[in-house]
Amino acid sequence: MAESSSAATRVPVVAKLLTANEQVAAGNRATFQGHGNLVINIMASPGAGKTTLLLATIELLRAASVKVGVIEGDVASQVDADKIATTGAPVVQINTGGSCHLDAPMVRSGLEALPLEGLDVVFIENVGNLICPVSFDLGQDYNIALLSVPEGHDKPYKYPGIFEAVDLVVVTKSDLLPYLDFEVDTFRELVAGLNPNAPILVVSAKTGEGMDTWTGWVREKLAAR
Amino acid sequence: MAESSSAATRVPVVAKLLTANEQVAAGNRATFQGHGNLVINIMASPGAGKTTLLLATIELLRAASVKVGVIEGDVASQVDADKIATTGAPVVQINTGGSCHLDAPMVRSGLEALPLEGLDVVFIENVGNLICPVSFDLGQDYNIALLSVPEGHDKPYKYPGIFEAVDLVVVTKSDLLPYLDFEVDTFRELVAGLNPNAPILVVSAKTGEGMDTWTGWVREKLAAR
């Protein structure tokens, strides 16, 4: 047993210890801020259209003289990074080797491969997953969730954590709305019930619907830095 | 330091220790086998059409006098179990409370809620995720992966583990093939490269395409028990 404390003993109280991931994320954030980068972490299911949205976004932002770099996260392969590279944007692929999310050290390991000093926006495309990525700070400024029309409007019931955690929700593949039973208004209500402050955009990278609103959101956040 | 072994000392070698999950999974398997249940674990992304496939499958198998029960796994909510219940099939919902996969003890906890002795087939609908569920034995006889047409044919590159692990791959939402760039032949080649023995079926629960082949696969496995 420890000795009893005297009345004069000061008891140290540690309000919050940073985890190893949080420490590295703080370092990443400082690095990004030092280069003036706006950093946006994109989370979504497999096949929700993250890479396709990025391909169209890079071109639209380039037309507005906004320079974009991309950090691609996948369990395996570099197919997404190869697609991004066709735009000429700087990109680095991180393979998690089985892990269902990126973490801050993984992102750290990719930073040297990007010319951060010349970039306005860095998009992080997280591993396709609605659950695991939510809990890991990477050093980003904003979190966004994509939800594609074919996945169905009921997903906020089943995966509430991601919709609670994000700053913006983007409904992708709106060109498929005529062929599917996705109720946009129901989805808006479900998200609002979890996260009243998150805007919800509806876009199609294929037809261009909503893309100006989406890139406008990015440019607004860039201007506010 | 331990003492040196004498020449006569027998060294026990434990070839493989069962994990806690594997021990419970073995118990689940014995329970299912004792009741003559065929147990199929369904894994897929969020919104790939697991529940919709099950709804149509339950009706088709009922018409063939095959009795089906369902174990529904989700992070939160019981919306999927409520849908299954509309068919009259016995169903139990398991909420993982944040975990990205079912495990054997979770399945165990749901078994008392099902009338196993009267069931031919038990489907386990795992949490929507292409990564985490692959590593956890639940006591099932077969693993299957669904991949929906909107997710894209490139997913085996990025999530090889699940395609290596399953006994059957089902491409869902084939009714959307006319509207999307999903290359069925490319997908078949990619899966075959990872898992040459897994059959690949193409189905639409909406139009009925391929559903007889899929339920035929289930009935074949049931007959072989």
Q: Into which percent range does the helicity of residues of chain A fall? A: 25-40%
How would you sum up the global shape of chain A?
globular
Unreliable stretches covering 5 or more consecutive residues of chain A: 1-5
Counting H and I runs of at least 4 residues, what is the number of helices of chain A? 8
- Terminal-residue CA separation of chain A: 53 Å
- Order of adjacent strands in the largest pleated sheet of chain A: 3-2-4-1-5-6-7
| Overall strand count of chain A | 7
Series of H and E elements of chain A: HEHEHEHEEHHEHEH
What is the average of the pLDDT values of chain A? 94
Beta-strand residue percentage of chain A: 15-25%
Biggest beta sheet attributes of chain A: 7 strands, parallel
Protein structure class of chain A: alpha/beta
In angstroms, what is the radius of gyration of chain A? 20 Å
**Biggest interface between protein chains, with counts per chain?**
A-B, 34 and 33 residues
- Oligomerization category of the chains in this entry: homodimer
What is the secondary structure topology, with strand pairs?
2 copies of one chain form a homodimer.
Chain A: H1 20-34, E1 38-43, H2 50-63, E2 68-74, H3 79-85, E3 91-95, H4 104-111, E4 121-125, E5 142-148, H5 155-158, H6 160-165, E6 168-172, H7 184-194, E7 200-202, H8 211-223
Parallel strand pairs in A: 1-4, 1-5, 2-3, 2-4, 5-6, 6-7
